[in-house]
Amino acid sequence: MRFRVATLNLEQDHKRWDARCELVRAEIGRLKPDIIAFNEVCVPRQSARGLRDVTPVLTGYKHRCRKAIGVTMLSGWPEGAS
User: Tens of pLDDT along 39-68?
Assistant: First the structure.
């Protein structure tokens, strides 16, 4: 099985998120990853959730959030898929 993974450090909110957000979205749309891992998400700004909400438009399928210590993962695989 082939799948595509993308990772990105969102660097909380101190690195011009408003200016970078559209660039990040464009790259997600270009890569169309099955799994996306973000670290340093900004909880107050909901940066990972906002990216998750646009993945159906960008990739063609809905991603779900999975949280781990320091990392937020988005998966486009159906629940229980292996």
Answer: 888 877 888 888 889 988 998 888 887 776
Global pTM? 0.77
Q: Give the full edge-to-edge strand order of the sheet including 35-39.
A: 5-9, 35-39, 71-75, 64-68
pLDDT per residue as tens digits for the range 28-45: 999 999 888 888 888 778
The sign of the dihedral angle between the CA atoms of 42, 72, 54, 32 is positive
Residue pair 58/32 in contact by the 8 Å Cβ criterion: yes
CA atoms within 13 A on the CB side of 3: 11
Where helices occur in 10-46 by DSSP H, the ranges are 17-31
Mention every residue, 6+ apart, whose C-beta is less than 8 A from residue 39: 7, 8, 9, 10, 70, 71, 72
